[in-house]
Design brief:
By secondary structure, the protein is mainly alpha-helical. The protein has five helices and three strands. Helix 1 packs antiparallel against helix 4 and helix 2 crosses helix 3. The two termini are 12 Å apart.
Length: 109
């Protein structure tokens, strides 16, 4: 069965993909760091969200093993951005687009 997504959602997806591509290019050209600290991730995305995403396997936790008693933890910026988009893509939609998406989701189950 073929379903059509609301036009607004398609535009949001395109904007997100374009932004992620630009961010990946900045990371590849060393203008931006690929990783942020656990503290920064918790500040930007919320500690509960980051913990939930790690447990769900959406985001990977990288530990710095430098021989110290306490090692640092880092997260990949692109993974965090992707997880945040997946969790919030409907929040920014208009009420009409939200209703269309809810109908699509409810009829596909």
């Amino acid at each position: 069965m073929m379903r059509t997504l609301p036009e607004e959602l398609i535009y949001n997806l395109i904007d997100f993909a374009r932004g992620m591509g630009r961010r990946e290019e900045r990371i590849n050209s060393f203008k931006e760091s690929q990783f942020i600290s656990q503290n920064q991730a918790h500040i930007r995305y919320g500690k509960g969200n980051v913990t939930k995403w790690v447990k769900a396997g959406i985001v990977k936790k990288y530990k710095d093993a430098d021989g110290k008693l306490r090692s640092g933890v880092r997260y990949d910026v692109l993974e965090l951005e992707s997880a945040a988009f997946k969790c919030n893509y409907m929040k920014d939609l208009s009420p009409l687009a939200k209703a269309e998406m809810k109908e699509i989701i409810s009829t596909s189950n």
